[in-house]
Specification:
The protein is α+β, with helices and mostly antiparallel strands and 153 residues long. It is built from 4 helices and 7 strands; from the N terminus they run ααβαβαβββββ. It has helices at residues 10-23, 27-31, 43-46, 54-68; strands at residues 34-41, 52-53, 69-82, 85-96, 102-114, 117-125, 143-146. It has a 7-stranded mixed sheet with strand order 2-1-6-5-4-3-7. The radius of gyration is 15 Å and the shape is globular.
């Protein structure tokens, strides 16, 4: 039996809305889906040692990405429950504003939630297989909880 939106954990809908608002450059709408005490360690930000904290940090991250890249298209593919977290497999396709360099990379995002909002979002390349804090992510114990949405035509 195929799972539906009603079968998915609440976090799936929250993450989808966050990425939709990211894509439409809706910063206020994006921020309202994150807890005031949120932290994010984006994959590309980690290359520069970046941890973004709170809504002010998210604003900085949002503006940095949209100013550094002419295109930045995250794609969500699958959602897995992992304890109290949601693990999302996907890709990022991007083009550098100044260099024109193209990026196409597989990535995992791990999200935790508090009171219906995203508390923590970490992005790591698939090959890393550990969280930024060094904990194993239980690759053999995660449970597929929701199929991806079809790609837009």
């Amino acid at each position: 039996m195929r799972e539906t939106d009603q079968d998915a954990p609440a976090g799936v809908a929250i993450v989808r809305r966050a990425f939709e608002r990211w894509a439409s450059k809706d910063l206020p709408g994006f921020l309202e889906l994150f807890d005031e005490d949120c932290e994010t360690r984006p994959h590309l930000g980690r290359l520069e040692g970046g941890v973004y904290r709170g809504h002010e940090g998210l604003r900085r991250w949002f503006n940095d990405v949209h100013s550094d890249w002419t295109e930045f298209c995250p794609e969500l593919r699958t959602f897995d429950e992992l304890g109290d977290s949601l693990l999302i497999a996907g890709r990022i396709r991007a083009r550098g504003r100044v260099s024109g360099v193209e990026l196409d990379t597989a990535i995992w995002w791990r999200c935790t939630f508090r009171d219906g909002r995203i508390l923590c979002m970490d992005g790591v390349p698939r090959a890393e297989r550990r969280s930024p804090r060094g904990q194993a992510w239980g690759w053999l114990t995660r449970r597929r909880c929701f199929p991806p949405q079809p790609a837009p035509a």
